Amino acid sequence: MGASEAQAPKILLLGEELVKNKLLLSNLSKYPNLRILTDFNSFNQLKKAEVKYIDLIVLEIADSSAEALDWVKQIKSQLPAIKIIVVNSGHSMEIIAKAFYYGANDFFRTPVDVNLLSERISSLLDMN
Length: 128
Prior knowledge:
This protein is of the alpha/beta class. The chain has a single domain (3-124), classed as Rossmann fold. The protein has helices at residues 3-7, 16-20, 22-28, 48-51, 66-78, 93-101, 114-124; strands at 10-14, 35-37, 56-61, 83-88, 106-109. It has a five-stranded parallel sheet, with helices on both faces. α3 runs parallel beside α7 (114-124). The protein is globular.
């Protein structure tokens, strides 16, 4: 791995709809130094060692997924510098409040505006 590749920001898209979103992937490809990881469909597949090398996680969660929000809390307590964007299809204010309380940097409802999400990712990673 070259020096520039080692320093390239790494984001992880977690969630089936995010990984399949070709428009999102195309939008993110305009940032040539960004490494996009889509190898995992759920946070349960990740090992803690793998997460520490990621700069930003976009996490799609189900409305009733207290486990996913607990995962956000755990990751942010262990790695406070990691950025997390939560994506959710529901309209529960409790989900939104908990996501931010546990350390999420932003929250998007589905369907996601991929242009806005791409810009937010860029902003959180200081790629502007």
